[in-house]
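Quick one, T. Sequence first:
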Amino acid sequence: RRAVVRVDIAGPAETLYVKVLRPRIFADVLRRHTLLREGGIPAPEVLLATDDQLLVTRELPGTPLAHALFEEGEPCRPEEIVELLDAMPSAVSRLERRPPWADAVGHYARMVSATLPELDGELSRLTEQIVTGLAAYPEGTEPTHGDLHEGQLSVAGGRIVGMLDVDTIGPGRRADDLACLIGHLATIQRMNPRQEARVRELLVRWVPVFDKRVDPVELRLRAAAVVISLATGPYRGQETDWRQQTVAMVRSAGALVRQVVA
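Structure tokens:
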């Protein structure tokens, strides 16, 4: 569907990314980058757009949040994450709508159950609780990223300096983005004990801030749905301990649901 090639230039030292896109989506992707950049959002700068659907962008400054999470000091303020999302131009809400991760929770639950049938009952119950709990929330009209996680943000000096993969921006609910980030942070794999403690500390500080911006019940149900979608990863990646990882993720989703569903 697409390919991305990294180009390292020796002098002066610079890194560019060449994205090869299908003709039918090229204009839309370019439009999204332009829309955000013109609105003051630190999306990748487009240096060149060619007639044969190549998009050349400059590497974002800073360090990926996925790496900065484990460094000393606060990688960024959780309030700044909310502020960045809220600062996206209103025109983003008029783009094509993409279904949030929670809409596909049943699909992903069935995928996990197919590999670990003993989890079928637990996953069915969680799916029902998530779907029922989210039924009262209408489709959102806020500008959203669509797939926000720690790999999409770049930070420097405790500030957010870049946001990647803006192809997915469009209308939705703010809880979609914040829940996606929580779900990813809650399921980072292959961490050592110090890193696990570090991520737990961040979640303890960040989630209450997110709770002030969105409905805490909605946030946890959507985060649980994201965790279930990610629980398909260990098996697909054929991790040596994929069973234990998958069970741990499903239990993590259950813990989120139990916080808000009796």
